[in-house]
Amino acid sequence: MRKTIKNIFKFFLLLLVAGIIFIAWANYNIKKDSAASVSYNIADVPEAKTALLLGTGKTLSNGMPNAYFYNRIKAATALYKSGKIQYIIVSGDNSSKDYNEPEDMQFALVQRGIPQDKIILDHAGFRTLDSVVRAKDIFGQTKLTIISQKFHNERAVFLAQKNGIQAFGYNAEDVNKYAGLKTNLREYLAKAKVYWDLIFGVEPKFGGEKIIIP
């Protein structure tokens, strides 16, 4: 009995070690493959008709403003006003009546001088995978500038390229590493899950009719 318990313990320990190695490999590989396609410098960003602004909530659970949100809005505004993009798809979660990332982003962008008719709402961007794939399948974009923080852009650009999209990530300003600790830890698992989604051909939760961007 003791020997059986010992063998079971060894088996789960090996699984744990293998999982840690896989997570580390996935993170390293995605960062390496996307390194040449993400930048904090607008001058590095190639011209594209459309940008994809990835959603997050405008406030934290404690009611305080979410720096991730406002830094992405600032980056999207700067990129649009630089002339590098013509349209912005704002893609995020709208899973409940009182939570609407796309409309919150649209409102914030309009406040900063972006014409409303240059902003396209995608209410079904429940995950990064959904936002990226829908940009191609629903909105017909095969070349995108993706806007988010660097850690997020690395994953989004990698996903886009694996789904036949020519993508470049414009990095919004990062958040204090202590304030963003939980998000950064979660990102390690999210990068590993990218490979699961690719292997099993996971698709967006919702499809829909195609929307033409002029």
From TrEMBL:
Domain of life: Bacteria
InterPro entries attached to this UniProt entry: Cell_Envelope_Assoc, DUF218
Gene Ontology CC, one term: plasma membrane
Domain DUF218: 52-189
PANTHER family: INNER MEMBRANE PROTEIN, PROBABLE PERMEASE, INTEGRAL MEMBRANE PROTEIN
Name of the protein: SanA protein
